[in-house]
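Lab channel / #folding
Pinned by the channel admin:
"Please post every new chain as: sequence first, then the structure tokens as a reply. Keep commentary short and put observations after the output so the thread stays searchable."

First post following the new format, from NK:
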Amino acid sequence: MRLGKDLIGKPIVTIDEGRHIGKVKDLYLDRDLTEMTGIYLGREGLLRRKDNLIPRDSVVVYGVDAILVETASAMTDSHEVDVEQWIKLEELAGRSIDTPGGTKLATVGDVLLDVTGQITGFSLAKVSVDGPIADNRAIDRQAVLDNGNEDGVMTIDLNLAEQLGLPQESQPAGEDREAEENN
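Reply from TO:
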């Protein structure tokens, strides 16, 4: 599991030519906040502005030192991909988190990603409560009731968040079954 911000600044390199095609400037997330959908590389153009990006399914490896894509053609722009349903990590950071009763708990600091780009949880900033949430400084994605896209405030089930503890690494369905069978 890694923080989304750990990917920011990493170079993107093609496997076929070993060519550097850009650096990660931000991450795109789906509006449901369940997965990373792409990598934002920046904006270009004077008259016809476009955002350069790489869709998540074009990434081969999220490495320690670099992100690898098959070819330079993996890079596309916002005129070719509908990014209106995506949000950037920088837009999510700082979003307030509260309970259904309106008790302010914290703000979103970052997303926690598994190796496949699924969001498993959220790291917290400006925690304003005591207890397991404050100790962990993170909540599991499963505790989110409302992602806050409408009102800008994420709502979580506090009891569930405390029960779940720290987010766990997601496993594909087949691996879950194998682990259960081996126990």
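NK: The CA atoms of residues 12 and 67 lie 5 Å apart.
TO: also worth noting, The first helix runs from residue 89 to 92.
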